[in-house]
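quick one, 188 residues, struct below
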Amino acid sequence: MKNAIYGNEMDRMPNWAFKIMAFTFNIADFVKSPGRRLDAFGIRKGQTVVDWGCGTGRYLKQASELVGEKGTVYAVDIHQLAFEAAAGIAKRFNLKNIHPVLTDGITVSIPPQSVDVLYALDMFHMVKDSNGFLKELCRIIKVGGVLILEDGHQPRALSKNKVNSADCWEIVSETKAYLKCKPINRSI
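---
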């Protein structure tokens, strides 16, 4: 039952779970805007940012505003409903710098070494192949780029073990909410 609710290592949640999540987030976001979370990630005008596991798109509008007209925000998810939600947000707010991207859970059609900031919030616990996932993130991040990785519904020690096992990221700092990582291996 826990896997059905939290999605641990299932890659893609069922449609019904996605719809419940969207409903819950809409209520929570009405009370408190989620976008302010991104302020701590160092996103600047003109950057290329990836919201991996964008889900309902709750951070996309803020990310779009932070990178500005000359920046790019890739809204990446494995779920078709997430892709549609991201496209809907871009259309509703006329945000031309948001580009929804479907992934198979590992690979993504984003050019190598093109991303300045990549954040993956409340989704890492769902990844079955954490090594493949983290190596793909390393492929698309620029030298000097940063990965913000939230544990999701797994212990911090497990997140750190997965990051270290991938052998392409260095954990440079951590907060109660997330790990901040930089790429260390460019031979991927």
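The radius of gyration is 15 Å.
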